[in-house]
Amino acid sequence: MEDKHLLIVGAGLVGSLLGLRLLQRGYKVSLLELRPDLRSSSQSAGRSINLALSHRGLRGLELVGLRDKAMELSVKMRERMIHSSAGQLMGLAYSAREGEYINSISRKALNCMLMDAIDQLDPKALQFESKLLDWNPQQQSVQWADQNGIVHKLDNVILLGTDGANSQCRKLLMEQSQKLRFNYSQSYQNYGYKELTLPPGPGGEFLIKKEALHIWPRGHFMMIALPNPDASFTCTLFFPYRGEDSFEILDQPDLRKEFFDRHFSDMADYFEIFNEEYEKNPIGHLYTVKCSPWSYEDKMLLMGDAAHAIIPFYGQGMNCGFEDVVIFDEMLNQNKNWLSCFQSFEKARKINSDAIADLAEDNFLEMRDRVADLDFQKKRTLEIKLEKEFSDYFSKYSLVTFRPDVSYHDAMQLGRKQDEYLLQVVNNEKDIDSINPLILIEQLRALR
Ligand SMILES: Cc1cc2nc3c(=O)[nH]c(=O)nc-3n(C[C@H](O)[C@H](O)[C@H](O)COP(=O)(O)OP(=O)(O)OC[C@H]3O[C@@H](n4cnc5c(N)ncnc54)[C@H](O)[C@@H]3O)c2cc1C
C-alpha cells in the first residue's frame, strides 16, 4: 500500500479508534477535532452520556489492545428490567449464556481512553479546535486551521471522514455528486430524546437494580436507564414531539408532575430531580442517514456515523462504527492499493450498515411497546430456554449483539425468520411449558 499521510476528520469514538489502529500499523496519521480536548474540559462528549458496548465494539477495542481496560470502566447489564405503569418489575435476561451481557460505558471515558493511547504513540497526532477549510481532490490537498487560527496546507493526503452524523466530509462528497452519482437519504423520527440523571442514593448506592438496562415501555413512548460506575443512572426519555403525551405537553411545567406520577409511578419520589433536569437539558433529535458511495477514488473515505447514522434502539451505532475499523483493518491486509481497499470496505459494510439501520427501527417498536406484550414475554422466555439447552441457538438479539462472526445482514435475515416462527408458536400454544424443545429446535434449525 502506498505510504500516504492519513488525515482523519473527527476524533470522536470511531475516529479515535481508527487513528489509534492506523498509528499502530505505522502510518503517518493526523486527527482534526472541532471540539476542545475532552480530557481537559468539563464539556460532555456530546449526545448520549453513556452507551451500551457489546461484542462487536469489544472486538474493535481488542484489536487495539484496550478491551480489558474498557471493561474495567463499564457496568455489566445482564437483563432488561421492565417497569410497568403500576410499578411492577420484570427482568428479561439478554441471554442464558455466560459472558453474554452488554456493558454500560461513559462516552467521555471511552473517548478519553482512546485519545490517551493515541498520545502515547504520537503526541502531535491529535489537533483540537481544528477545522477543515478546503479539500482539493485533484491535488489531494487540504487546508485546515488550528486552534490559533493558523492555516496549514497538506499535500498528498487521504481524508478519512469520521465526523459523525452531520458530517462535513459527507457534504464534500455531495459536492461531487454528479461525478459520483451520490445517493443520500436522511429520515427523522417523530421522536426526540431528553437525558435525565438519577443520582446515587444517600449512601452512594444504586437506587434501582445495578446490573440491568431499565425500560419503562409505554406504547407510544418510553424511558430507559443505564447504570454508571458512580451508582447514578442516565435515563433517556424517548418521546414524540407533538400529540397527547409529547414534549409539547411536558414543556408545560404544571402538567409534568401528574404525568410522571401516572407513567413512572415507581420513580415518583425522584420527580423533583427529574424536573430540574428536564428544565436544563436539551431535546436531541433522532435520524437515520444512508448514503453511497462512501469514497471518492482513493482520496477520501467515510466511516462510522458519517457513512451510516442509525437510531439508537439496538445500541449498535458505536458498535457498528468500531466494527467498521475491524473490517477496514482486514481490508488493509487484503488489498494492495487504497482504491481497492476503499471499494472492498464499502462492499463489505454497506449491506450490513443498512441492515442494522433497519433493525434499529424495528427495535424501537419492540422496546417501547412489545416488551410489555404477553406474547413477546412468552417468546423471550422460550428463547432463553432454547439458548440454555442448545448451544447453537441464538435469538435475533443475541445474533446482533453477541455474534460478531455473523454479519448484521445475516443476523437480520435469520433473526426475523426465527421471530416470526416463534411468535406463531406462542400464539398457538397457551402454555409454553408444554412445548417440546427438541421438536422446536429442529424446526428452528430448518430455518437456517
Ligand atoms: C441517544 C443516543 C444513544 C446512543 N446509544 C448508543 C449505544 O448504546 N450503543 C452504541 O453502540 N451506539 C449508541 N449511539 C450511537 C453512537 O453515539 C454513534 O454511533 C457514535 O457516536 C458514532 O461515532 P462517530 O465517531 O462516528 O461519530 P461521533 O461520535 O459523532 O464523533 C464525531 C466527531 O467528529 C467531530 N466533528 C464533527 N464535525 C467535525 C469537523 N467538521 N471537523 C472536525 N471534527 C468534527 C465531533 O466533534 C465528534 O467528536 C447512541 C446515539 C444516541 C444519539
Helices and strands in order:
Blueprint (H helix, E strand, L loop, with lengths): L4 E5 L3 H12 L3 E5 L17 E4 L1 H9 L3 H6 L2 E3 L1 E5 L5 E5 L8 E5 H15 L4 E2 L3 E6 L4 E5 L5 E4 L2 E5 L6 H8 L1 H4 L2 E16 L13 E6 L4 E6 L5 E8 L6 H4 L2 H11 L7 H10 L3 E9 L2 E2 L3 E3 L14 H18 L3 H31 L5 H16 L6 H7 L5 H21 L8 H9 L3
Parallel strand pairs: 1-2, 1-12, 2-8, 5-14, 12-19
Antiparallel strand pairs: 3-7, 4-7, 5-6, 9-10, 10-11, 13-16, 13-17, 14-15, 15-16, 18-19
Helix pairs in contact: 1-4, 1-10, 2-10, 10-11, 11-14, 12-14, 13-14
Can you characterise this structure?
The chain has 448 residues and is an alpha/beta fold. The protein has three domains: 231 residues, FAD/NAD(P)-binding domain; 96 residues; 73 residues, no CATH class. Helix content is 40%, strand content 23%. Strands 6-5-14-15-16-13-17 form a seven-stranded mixed sheet. The chain has a six-stranded mixed sheet with strand order 8-2-1-12-19-18, with helices on both faces. Strands 3-7-4 form a three-stranded antiparallel sheet. Helix 1 runs parallel beside helix 10 and helix 10 packs antiparallel against helix 11. The mean pLDDT is 94. The site of flavin-adenine dinucleotide (FAD) has 34 residues, from helix 1, strand 3, strand 9 and helix 10.
- Predict the CATH topology of the largest domain: FAD/NAD(P)-binding domain
DSSP strand count = 19
Rg, Å, rounded: 23 Å
How many helices? The count is 15
Q: So what's the CATH class of the largest domain?
A: Alpha Beta
The distinct bound ligands, ions and cofactors come out as: flavin-adenine dinucleotide
In the residues, how many domains can be counted? 3
What's the end-to-end separation, in Å? 39 Å
Q: Helix/strand-derived class?
A: alpha/beta
